[in-house]
TrEMBL record:
It comes from Colletotrichum higginsianum (strain IMI 349063) (Crucifer anthracnose fungus). PANTHER family: PUTATIVE (AFU_ORTHOLOGUE AFUA_2G14390)-RELATED (PTHR43861:SF3), TRANS-ACONITATE 2-METHYLTRANSFERASE-RELATED (PTHR43861). It holds the Pfam family Methyltransf_23. GO terms for biological process: methylation. This is Methyltransferase domain-containing protein.
Length: 272
């Protein structure tokens, strides 16, 4: 997805991602993306998620008189916002791609939500570009969140540690940060080992490795192998978080872009 030849060395990762996702966002998602999104959401809307995330939803609502505020960074079409909105009074989605934000706003409209309940704005908090959003929001509207969430985007940034610090800085003390992304295919789980054995039997290991190195969106990716549990925990800790939680997907996910499989993870921590 995307044309790496269209990118230049002068472009920031944010600009590369904006150009790429402006190109691929319009229209219906292909089946493999729909399936991947469903796999992500199934855990987030399950009865297990609030306790895994340390969210005492009833106590939180009673104490605050509301259900708090959430930031969905690199929000895409609003997958996380839609899944987690029942836990929060309002959600702000931020993305570098205008085309993705069109989908985000369509998601909000489909849910019958007002801008006060679910708003999408264009912005880049990560790559050193101006932090002014389109439409412009005051800084106080973009800080002191109860939850900051980011799905399938951490591997798209150039500096994961700086990204984590920026996102955590927008949380209130005691707020939660949720990351959904890829774990490396390093044979550390039974599902991965079974898949690696399949590739060996079919003599496809080298082919898959090559696809991962040269696929059409590779120029938008900072860490194509994803993040180990230890790496994600360290990123949280270095950003000033505690209380690490980690969950791997039970099944591998098919990625048509590279005709290969990957393993999702959900990770969460609390701002100290």
């Amino acid at each position: 997805m995307g044309d790496s030849t269209a990118s230049t060395a002068q472009e920031t990762f944010g600009e590369k991602n904006a150009k790429h996702f402006d190109k691929v966002a319009p229209g219906e998602w292909p089946r493999w993306i729909v399936d991947l999104q469903q796999q992500i959401v199934d855990f987030l809307v399950s009865p297990d998620f609030p306790s895994w995330a340390g969210l005492d939803v009833n106590a939180q609502a009673q104490a605050q008189g509301s259900k708090g505020r959430m930031l969905d960074y690199a929000c895409g079409d609003g997958l996380l916002s839609k899944a987690l909105k029942p836990l929060y009074a309002s959600v702000i989605g931020v993305d570098v791609s205008g085309a993705m934000l069109d989908k985000y706003r369509a998601t909000a409209s489909g849910l019958g939500l007002t801008d006060e309940e679910m708003m999408g704005v264009r912005g880049d908090f990560i790559t050193g570009a101006s932090q002014a959003t389109e439409p412009p929001l005051p800084e106080e509207a973009l800080s002191d969140f109860d939850m900051v969430a980011m799905s399938m985007a951490l591997h798209h940034v150039e500096d994961a540690a700086a990204t984590m610090r920026e996102l955590v800085s927008r949380l209130k003390v005691g707020g939660k940060i949720l990351i959904v992304d890829w774990a490396p295919l390093d044979g550390s789980t039974a599902a991965q080992r079974e898949y690696q054995e399949e590739l060996r039997k079919d003599n496809k290991e080298a082919i898959v490795k090559e696809r991962l190195a040269v696929h059409a969106a590779r120029h938008t990716v900072g860490k194509p192998e994803g993040f180990t549990e230890a790496e994600q925990k360290l990123l949280f800790e270095q950003a000033g978080c505690k209380g690490f939680a980690w969950k791997l997907a039970d099944k591998l996910s098919y990625v048509e872009l590279v005709d290969a499989k990957g393993q999702l993870y959900w990770a969460l921590a609390t701002k100290a």
